[in-house]
């Protein structure tokens, strides 16, 4: 239903914002590790950031798909 789609879109935006804040913090931490000469730890964190960015991108795709379906709900309902 429209309500569920709107809730899903809102939830994905919220999760994206949360991950965005986490990614910014992780980038700062990586910078600190590199400055302290702790390259192995920084590399591990970079791998984690890449995974998080992929998840963020997946949320964005799902959000766009939900918006697409939401825009088509009237058409779908009219064909019942």
TrEMBL record:
InterPro entries: Ist1, IST1-like. GO terms for biological process: protein transport. Pfam families: Ist1. It comes from the Eukaryota. Belongs to the IST1 family. This is IST1-like protein. It comes from Trifolium pratense.
């Amino acid at each position: 239903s429209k309500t569920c789609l709107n809730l899903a879109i809102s939830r994905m935006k919220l999760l994206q914002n949360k991950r965005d804040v986490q990614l910014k913090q992780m980038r700062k931490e990586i910078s600190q590790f590199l400055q302290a000469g702790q390259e192995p730890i920084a590399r591990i964190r970079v791998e984690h950031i890449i995974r998080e960015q992929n998840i963020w991108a997946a949320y964005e795709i799902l959000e766009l798909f939900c918006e697409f379906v939401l825009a088509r709900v009237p058409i779908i309902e009219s064909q019942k």
